[in-house]
Design a protein that fits this description.
The complex is a heterodimer.
Chain A: H1 2-21, E1 31-38, E2 43-49, E3 54-61, E4 66-74, E5 84-89, E6 99-107, E7 110-111, E8 118-120, E9 132-134, E10 138-141, E11 146-151, E12 160-163, E13 166-168, E14 171-172, E15 177-182, E16 193-198, E17 203-212, E18 218-223, E19 230-235, E20 250-253, E21 256-257, H2 259-262, E22 268-271, E23 277-284, E24 287-294, E25 307-314, E26 319-324, E27 334-342, E28 348-355, E29 359-362, E30 370-379, E31 393-396, E32 407-411, E33 416-421, H3 426-429, E34 435-442, E35 449-453, E36 459-463, E37 470-478, E38 481-482, E39 486-489, E40 502-504, E41 511-514, E42 525-531, E43 541-545, E44 551-554, E45 564-571, E46 578-586, E47 597-604, E48 607-613, H4 617-620, E49 626-632, E50 637-643, E51 650-653, E52 660-669, E53 672-673, E54 677-682, H5 687-715, H6 717-724, H7 753-758, E55 771-773, H8 775-780, E56 796-798, H9 806-825, H10 852-856, H11 861-874, H12 893-896, H13 926-933
Parallel strand pairs in A: 10-17, 40-46
Antiparallel strand pairs in A: 1-2, 2-5, 3-4, 3-6, 6-7, 6-8, 9-11, 11-15, 12-13, 12-16, 14-15, 16-17, 18-19, 19-22, 20-21, 20-23, 23-24, 25-26, 26-29, 27-28, 27-30, 30-31, 32-33, 33-36, 34-35, 34-37, 37-38, 37-39, 41-44, 42-43, 42-45, 45-46, 47-48, 48-51, 49-50, 49-52, 52-53, 52-54, 55-56
Helix pairs in contact in A: 6-13
Chain B: H1 14-41, E1 54-55, H2 65-93, H3 100-120, E2 132-133, H4 145-171, H5 175-179, H6 186-196
Antiparallel strand pairs in B: 1-2
The chains are: A alpha+beta, B mainly alpha.
Region (Disordered) (chain B): 177-197
InterPro entries (chain B): 4_helix_cytokine-like_core, Ciliary_neurotrophic_fac_CNTF
GO molecular function (chain B): ciliary neurotrophic factor receptor binding
Amino acid sequence: MQGWVTLALLLSLGVGCSLGQNGVGELPVPRGLTLNPDLPAQTLSLTWQSDSSLFDLEIFHTELMNVVLNETVAVKTDPVTGLHSWTWHSPLPLECTSHSAHIRARNQQSVSQWSPLQTIPGWDIPEKSESNMFPQDKVVPVGSNMTFCCIVKEKEDFKEIMYGRQEMSATRLSRRTYAITATNQPVSGNTGTNVICCSQRLTLTGAVVFVGYPPGDEGLVCETRDLASAECSWKKGRDTGLRMRRSRTKYTLNGRDCLEANERKRWWCSSKAWEQSWTLVARNPLGTVHLMDSAQLTDRVHLLAPVNVTAVEVKAWSATLQWSWSVAAYKKLEMVCQLQLFAHELNSTRNYSGPGLSSVVLESLWPDVDYTVTLYCGSKHGFWKWGDKSAPYRIHTKMDRPDALDVWMWMDSSNTGCVFWKPLSVRKSHGALVGYEVSQSSAEEDGWTPVSLPPGNFSYPIILNNGSDITVAVAARNPAGLSQPSTVTTPAYRADSQLSMSELLSTNGSFVLSWQPNANASSGYAVEWVPTGCSGLCPVDWKKVPESDSSFTLNSDSLVAGVRYTVSVYALSTGAPTLLQRWQGYSQEMTPSQSVRELLPNQSGSDVLLSWKATAMENQRGFIRGYTIYLANAAHLELIANISDPEVQSYRVKGLSLSSYKFVVKAYTSAGEDAGATVAIKMEMDTADMLFVGILVPLGIMFCCLILISICCYKKREWVKKAFYPEIPGPKVPGDWSSPQGPLDVKPSPHSLVHIVESPEWDFTKEGLFPVPEEEEESENDNIEVDADSDEPALLRYYNQVVGDGSHGNQVSDSSGSSNTSVDSTQTEITYAGIQSPTSSQGACGGGGYRPQMQSVIGPAEPQIEFEADFQDDGLHAGYKPQCSWQLDSPEAENFSGSLGSPTSVTSSQFLIPESSEEKPQPSNTWFHNFLSGKS
Amino acid sequence: MAGRGTNGRHGSRGHAGRTAALARLLHKECIQLLELYRNSESLPSSPVDGGYLVSIPPLVPQLSDAEKISILHAALKECLRLLEDVITREDAEFSDEDSEYKRKWKTVRDRLGHLLASTEQLLVEGQKFEAKVKEELDGQAVSGSFRLKMWIVRVLQDLVHWTGQTSDTLRSLPAEVEKAPKTMSRRTRRGAEKIRK
């Protein structure tokens, strides 16, 4: 306590010093400051006494001494109370925390001392330990800002403040008070917007704020229904969004509570008596709306609906309607009534007027029609609006006899025809038809012959027995009776071919017809149109034209596109109709639906004659203007002719070569071409030409070639001989055969082996030579077969048969085979018969069969020894080795030595035949050789 | 909650079984109603400060089943009174427009009346227990719409609690209780209970 006193003393001294520095002391301190809070309004009124008129004010949140207001205000003394008074509007509810204020006087730069602090306690003082939130149940306009505070109860923590579903950022104002500010608040739901303060475990407290709009009602209008009382109505306007009972809009009409509207049933108020002016006040916590209206009673009559509407007399063409009024005062009111008649395609509205109108006669009704009547009325003088509609009332008018039929007769031949009539519309039948009666009379027969037809018939066939005219009368019948008969006399039949018809061109799908007026057309004209060429049940249509007219437009809706019509105009009189004019035309031309028929090609030499026939008329769908002929190539059609005369139905395509052709013929109308008919033709030659070209010409050419070749060969025979049969020098064996030599690699000249055999220099002593195919080449070029028939002889090597290797033994045999083939092919007529058994082979060497080499060559031992030595010296591939060596590959090898050098080592038997033999074979090519050599 | 599941034996226990099933159904509907209200008002699921409004003597084991039912019957009766009061106040304060929440209110009120009538047949004649309501709406310090809403939550919390208690008690009720005449003395019933044990 002593400490507080010391602190206060020091503070006062300090303040005194500071004030002294500012000239303090001269202005008196304001006295008697009192604080008066208005909690719902969140205002704090300050009153004090002072002689000054300018004051500094400071307001604090007491607990934390946060300054919430520091302002200099000029406040005059209230002359009545002699007090100064100033009001501060707090953004925060004053209950949230304690507020303190003090004041001092100011005179320019001079100020007085501050007055003592005055405090109003908040609800966060220790004495109020419970949780609370402020403000409660505020009603505020949409878009406003608002601050809420939560006072947490003692010993409870604070977690958050939720505004609706939104967690808000809270500010601490005191030990227990936290505040949030909601800005631009949206309209609330049905039960307001909840602001909830929570601790970690509990919902502590909260408040509800109602955010809405002021009333938006408008358009007050008062009227009378009974010519005495008033009913005022208006439009509700925008929803206020305030559903709480105490926040709802309250209405008063001319100061009286409007119970109907306040119960939210209807937006209208009633008053038992009519008043000249009306004021509606709509009020809710956010605002008030005043709506005004003023009018005379007679100008605001809104009649009630007529009641007890009945039809007292219903006829075929009229009915009388009666009704009554529920308000007696209406009986003297000059009123106008509107009556609406609803029927199928017969709707109409009729007006009636009169004082207290309660009955009208409905004229111009149609027989046998179901009408629905609705009636409503209004005040005639000072008409305000139509009254309520009566309940719909149904009237069914009675039937009447049908109207006369529209009848026409169409002749499809000179003695047959058909009477047609058009079905009657609802307006003309006057009741459901039960049938037709057709009567006919002719000059020969007296009286009429009646025929009854069911209601679905609209034609009747006519046959003229002896060519005399027939008059037909047709009448329709319904339950009310028979219509007036309509008569028609058979017109004279005129076939199309008998007339010179003109082509009728359409205009926008319609035919515009005109004809010369005819003096005989006393009953007008009839325009008839029928599809051209139609027979049997044809869709004949017609239209009767008054005699004053000589033109008619046949509309497209009664014509079918692509159909040719024959249009005729008849003059009508008391007798038979007279044909005046006839046309044919299409309302709209289309491309033909089918191509030309019977398209045939006919070849004539290099020309082709194409012929066809036009498609049937029903498929033409337009006037055929011509034909186009195309040559069809792979990808496109090449136009080769355009025939603009539709009568021409053939075309000759000239100058075609031998090939296949496709021709396409298309007919065309003004709308275009059809799809086209295609025909193909293959151009063929004549028989004589074929013989000449196919046989004689190649033969001639071949013969000429042979002659030329022969001449050429003869003239160049030296060159040919040199090129193909050069002279081959005979083999010369100089020197000693005992010395080993390199392999004699003889490449045969490109002539036959026969030459070698025939060579006169051939020495039998060289019996060891024999042709051996060049194995390496063969093996390297397996795919290159040695062709014995080839002009190029096989490459052969001549070896002395000294090779002792087993493989060489095989080679011998193989080479024999090759040699055989070679020899055979060169036609040297070398034969092996009787020399080598067909079974002889390399395998036979070991056998005991015929072995000519072994038997016939038993030479002296010396050469054998020499060869053996050579063999041993030179090895296996020591070069050329004449037949002095032999392979020893069998147990009898030693015996073979005797055969070395023997002619039997040559596979060809020819070597075995002595040169001097008289039976020397004559080469088969001798004549050719001689020819080349110039021998005869 | 799992302990309050459907039990087939209730069906064979006649009136007590039907009453138990009714209590169980009502308990579920009260939970749904509380949830519905919290959702419509965007209220947090944390409990409202203040505890249960209705208080009864403790249901100690020494009490017989019939006595327990009598005590719970008294609690439910207070709940019904609070519920009707809340409905009236809410209609007076806020919009009386129809909603699912309003329809559920009326269903719960009607079913609670049926449960009270049904449990009344299980009571012992001559015995009267009373339940107390700790707080009344009019006695609270701060008035306002939020207080009414919190009060509604508290009433619903009480409804959930006491219907759950009743359902559990009726579910554990022996079959003999139903068979015993209403005039059976307390002592006799206890004796029978002991024999069973």
